[in-house]
From TrEMBL:
Protein name: Choline transporter-like protein
Native organism taxonomy: Eukaryota, Metazoa, Chordata, Craniata, Vertebrata
Organism field: Equus caballus (Horse)
Job of this protein: Choline transporter. Choline/H+ antiporter.
Principal place of residence: membrane
InterPro entries named in the record: Choline_transptr-like
Swiss-Prot/TrEMBL keywords: Antiport, Cell membrane, Glycoprotein, Membrane, Transmembrane, Transmembrane helix, Transport
Coiled-coil ranges (or none): none
Chain segments annotated as transmembrane: 16-34, 171-192, 198-219, 254-275, 300-325, 390-418, 438-462, 540-562, 582-612
Reaction catalysed by this enzyme: choline(out) + n H(+)(in) = choline(in) + n H(+)(out)
Family note: Belongs to the CTL (choline transporter-like) family.
Length: 646
């Protein structure tokens, strides 16, 4: 309570709190003592922080010849007096004056030592040494080691203030940039029905062209080296060299590059020849996904709902973890200023400490809070409760993601299985799918999330053991642990892939998780080439989209924040760190694009599963018509006619 009143007094009077004591500990390293080991009276509110370097011992012995020493020093004491009448030991007991004052800077209504460098030496008050008040001469480096953390805070505060100023100047433009990123992401998804094929084929032709140029360039370099001395040597002959350019003087190097590029060129061309039909189908599915989002635009808002649910889960975990960590009984320990008390580190009661024999036997000792603990059965299992809380957190996070995937899958499945699009699409497909997922599929989603959370928990345990036992492990144990971590990483990604498609099957047929996962796995295995091509094409298009959105917004933001757009007169000027708002805009734009494209990726996966099911269950007859769109039907008709001719 007294500390709070002092701080309020400092704020009201616009003054700074000066803490009195600087103590030495066993390792002869000094630390600035704020309020841990001194009683609450060992501080004073001053209108101005000290600007000189003086110790009480220096001032005490020099007072008779230089009275101005005391006149300056006394303003940092609690009670004014005409001269220093107390010895150093009495001063320590009475807490009337600081043992030393240092040139200081104000920070958060407190005074902290201000260090500087002179001729490469660390100084404070133009001194490199000082008397610590007990007759010992200390180096300023020791004080610096103690107050280093404080100075880091001061530097961070200065940088933080500049960053805050930049944000205050540019927040309006940052919001505009993020809004433009949202519009660009939406336009990119909608326009994919037109540009998907163009983007993919331009990329593929670009890869073929780059590889061809690389082959030609390697051949030219190989030809130039014909007849040159020592160019016939092999890489094995010259061994390992720090100068990499030496390898480029060998014909073997360029010949090797040429062979590698030629092999890659052949692989790409052969894949295009044999997989052209599947690539064409994949591009058609990308266009179909764009149409589906165009008919159900509300799906683009769903990531906001997922973000809210995830925030609730994170808050629940954090609050529960804090409550568990602080649910024990506060344990207090005896702490002495110089560490010379036989009762140090013993438990104590702060309410009655000043009346005990310990306080009398150890002047200056304090009863300070150490940690939360206890010896009850509950306290013994707090660590177990924290582990359970972490597992529940992982389970909830995966459940929220699963709920989003199942909801989006249900909405897009209702689009695909509409015979006449868009007339047969049910009203409000997203909200209907969300209601179905909550009402009928909660158990299936929870079970799939439980499997994934268990794998993630095992990975966290392995990582924890690796960190704790890193120094004590042998090479064999490290190798085994690395293998386990790699295996569980692969298992997690495989389960994520299977769960994602299992949720699509759940949204389509409403069956339980195990049966849906089995059906999804069998369906994917029967069409493994189509799955591989579809995944690669989708990944390429979405990655390109994220780069385009973040890159375009980043370029515009760079030109704006560096004042290179002359038509914008009222733009941000004189920024301290223009890259801070620039990175904010780029990262924010990328995250916005990721949110939009995650919906699109789920749309593609759903339509792809529906497409495979449609091909296997229907034959295009009147009794069993295809539900695919006309564009997909034309592609499949061409493929079937070509197969019949062959």
């Amino acid at each position: 309570m007294n500390k709070a009143l002092l701080l309020l007094e400092a704020l009201a009077q616009k003054c700074h709190m000066l803490h009195f004591y600087l103590h030495a500990i066993d390792t002869i390293v000094l630390y600035v003592h704020l309020d841990a080991r001194r009683k609450e009276s060992s501080k004073i509110c001053v209108s101005k922080c000290p600007e000189k370097f003086l110790t009480y011992m220096e001032m005490y012995f020099m007072y008779r010849t230089r009275e101005n020493y005391w006149s300056y020093y006394s303003q940092f004491c609690k009670a004014a007096s005409a001269k220093p009448v107390k010895a150093f030991t009495q001063l320590l007991l009475d807490d009337d004056c600081p043992t030393a004052i240092f040139p200081s800077r104000p920070f958060l209504q407190r005074c902290f030592p201000d260090f500087s460098t002179k001729n490469g030496l660390l100084t404070i008050g133009n001194k490199t040494t000082f008397n610590d008040g007990s007759g010992k001469t200390r180096n300023v480096v020791e004080l610096r080691a103690a107050a280093n953390g404080v100075n880091k805070i001061l530097d961070a505060r200065a940088i933080g203030m500049k960053v805050f100023e930049d944000y205050a100047t540019t927040w309006y433009w940052i919001l505009i940039g993020l809004t433009i990123a949202m519009l660009l992401s939406w336009m990119f998804v909608i326009l994919l029905r037109v540009t998907a094929g163009f983007l993919f084929w331009v990329f593929i032709l670009g890869v073929i062209g780059i590889l061809a140029y690389g082959i030609w360039h390697c051949y030219q370099e190989y030809s130039k080296l014909q007849g040159k001395p020592n160019s016939h040597l092999s890489i094995y002959n010259i061994g390992i060299q720090t100068d990499i350019s030496m390898y480029f003087q060998l014909k073997q190097t360029w010949f090797t590059f040429m062979i590698i590029l030629a092999i890659l060129e052949v692989i790409v061309i052969v894949m295009l020849i044999f997989l052209r039909d599947r690539i064409r189908v994949s591009i058609a599915l990308l266009k179909e996904g764009s149409k589906a989002i165009g008919y159900i635009p509300s799906t683009l808002i769903y990531p906001v709902l997922t973000f809210i649910f995830l925030s609730i889960c994170i808050s629940y975990w954090a609050v529960t973890a804090v409550y568990l960590a602080t649910s024990g009984t506060p344990i207090y320990k005896v702490i002495a200023p110089e560490g010379q008390c036989e009762h140090e580190n013993k438990t104590c009661d702060p309410e009655i400490f000043n009346t005990t024999e310990i306080a009398k036997a150890c002047p200056g000792a304090h009863c300070n809070f150490a940690f939360y603990g206890g010896k009850s059965l509950y306290h013994q299992y707090i660590t177990t409760f924290q582990i359970v809380n972490l597992f529940i957190f992982l389970w909830l996070i995966n459940f929220v993601i699963a709920l989003g995937q199942c909801t989006l899958a249900g909405a897009f499945a209702s689009y695909y299985w509409a015979l006449k699009k868009p007339d047969d699409i049910p009203p409000h497909p997203l909200f209907t799918a969300f209601g179905r997922a909550i009402r009928y599929h909660t158990g299936s989603l929870a079970f799939g999330s439980l499997i994934l959370a268990t794998i993630q928990m095992v990975r966290l345990v392995l990582q924890y053991l690796d960190n704790r036992l890193k120094d004590a492990q042998s090479n064999i144990s490290r190798f085994l642990q690395c293998c386990l971590k790699c295996c569980f990483w692969c298992l997690e990604h495989v389960v994520k892939f299977l769960n994602r498609h299992a949720y699509v099957m759940i949204a389509i047929y409403g069956q339980n998780f195990c049966r849906s996962a089995r059906d999804a796995f069998n369906l994917l295995m029967r069409n493994v080439l189509k799955v591989a091509v579809m995944d690669r094409v989708t990944e390429f298009v979405l990655t390109l989209g994220k780069i385009l959105v973040a890159g375009c917004i980043g370029i515009l933001a760079f030109l704006l924040f560096t004042e290179r757009i002359p038509m914008i007169v009222e733009g941000p000027t004189s920024l301290n760190y223009y890259w801070v708002p620039l990175l904010t805009v780029i990262i924010g734009s990328y995250l916005i694009a990721h949110g939009f494209f995650s919906v699109y990726a789920m749309c593609i996966d759903t339509i792809f599963i529906c497409f495979l099911e449609d091909l296997e269950r229907n034959d295009g007859s009147t009794a069993r018509p295809y539900y695919m769109s006309q564009s997909l039907l034309k592609i499949m008709s061409k493929q079937s006619s070509q197969t019949k001719k062959q």
